[in-house]
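Translate sequence into structure tokens.
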Amino acid sequence: MKPNSEWIRKRRQELLSKTSDAEKSAYLNLKKLGITALRQYPVWTGRRMYFADLYIPKYNIIFEIDGGYHYTSRQKRLDGNRSSGLWRMGYHVVRLSNHDSRNILKIKNKILLILNGKIKK
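Result follows.
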């Protein structure tokens, strides 16, 4: 069952209050590139509610910023499932390490690859 709007609002606020430095850097880099992004954007898949770290509505791109725990076997599997579900819904999913999220050129190049059609849905 889809969570109600009050739960979504509270959960999003909670996540926004715990934004990592890497997520902040990626957001600011997108801003420097003149790209509007929404932080902790709620996405309902029909089965689960996810909160995308950064969502670019203009290009339907979701950026997920992956800290250290994302590189464990279990978390890689869970992240892969999440990304696959979002791709099936029509989103382009870009996973960035904490380190890469601070590099404006890496972010720009990821977006350009998608916009130039080099990465398919």
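Note: The first strand starts at residue 38 and ends at 44.
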